[in-house]
Amino acid sequence: MPRIDLNCDMGESFGRWRLGDDLGMMPYLTSVNVATGYHAGDPPTIRRTVAAAVEHGLAIGAHLAFPDLMGFGRRRMTVPPEDLEDYCLYQLGALDAFVRSAGGRMAHVKPHGALYVMASEDPALAAAVARAVAKTDPSLPLMLLNRSTADAVAAEGVTLVPEAFPDLHYDGSGRLVIEPVKLAWDPELVARRAVRMVLEKKIEAKDGTQLDVDAVSLCLHGDAPNAVETAAAVHRALTEHGIQTVPLAHLEVAS
C-alpha cells in the first residue's frame, strides 16, 4: 500500500491577527509545522497550536524562518550561515519547550518561505539549518523541496525529506509559484494532483511541462478560503486510491 505524510503549516497567527483554520484542518493531516515566532506565531498561539496537535495525535515540526514578521518570512535575506544557525537553534528551542510541556516530542523541521526556497537551492544555507537541527536532535528529518542540497544536509548528520505541493503551481523548471495571498483552488483538482504525485510521481507545471515529483510528504495550505474543504477532498481521494496517510516516523526515507 502506498503511504505518504500529509502536512500543513500552522500557528501562523499573531496577537489579534488570525490566519488559517488550524483546528478545521487537523482531522485530515498527519503532521503540522508550527510557526516559531520569526515570521508568525506568538507564545500563546504556539501553545494553543501545539496543545491541539497533541490532542489530535499529529506529528509536530518546527516551522523555521528568517526574522521577518513584517514580510511574513517571504523576503530573501543575506544572512551569514553562522547567524542563520543561531536563528534556527533559537527557534527550535522555543518550540521544543512548548512541545515537551504539552507531553509531546518534536518530530521534524521545515523552513518557511524565503528560507525554505533558499535552503532548497543553497547547500551552505541548508547545512546551517541542518547544524542547528543536529544540535537539537539529529534524528529530526529536515523537509525541503527536493534533494538538491541533500549531501550538505547529510554531512551534518541530518536526513533531508523532499515534499510536494498539490495546491501550488510549479513553473517549468520545478520551482514553486507562490501566491501573494492564498487563493481558493478547486478541491477535486487538488485531490487529483495529490493522488498523481503519489502514484505516478508526476505533476503538470503551470506551462504544461510534465515534472517528476520526488516526495515523501505532501503539504496543504490552511490559509486558503476553502482550505478545510480541500484537505477533506485530498484525504478522501488518497484513501479511495489505497494511499495511507502516516507521519514521517512511519515512512522509510531514502538518503
What order do the SSEs take from the amino end to the carboxyl end, as H and E?
A: EHEHEHEHHEHEEEHEEEHE
Number of helices: 8
Radius of gyration: 17 Å
- The 3D shape can be described as globular
Q: CATH top level?
A: Alpha Beta
Residue windows where pLDDT falls under 50 for at least 5 positions: none
Q: Which fold name is given in CATH as the topology? A: TIM Barrel
The counted number of beta strands is 12
- Return the average pLDDT rounded to an integer: 96
Q: For the terminal residues, how far apart are their CA atoms?
A: 21 Å
Give the structure's gist in a few sentences:
This protein is of the alpha/beta class. 36% of the residues lie in helices and 19% in strands.
Question: Could you please describe the fold and organization of this structure?
Answer:
By secondary structure, the protein is α/β, with parallel strands linked by helices. It has a single domain, classed as Alpha-Beta Barrel (TIM Barrel). The chain is built from 8 helices and 12 strands. Strands 1, 2, 3, 4, 5, 6, 11 and 12 form an 8-stranded parallel sheet that branches. Helix 3 links the parallel strand 3 (59-64) and strand 4. Helix 4 crosses helix 5 (123-136) and helix 7 (187-199) crosses helix 8 (227-240).
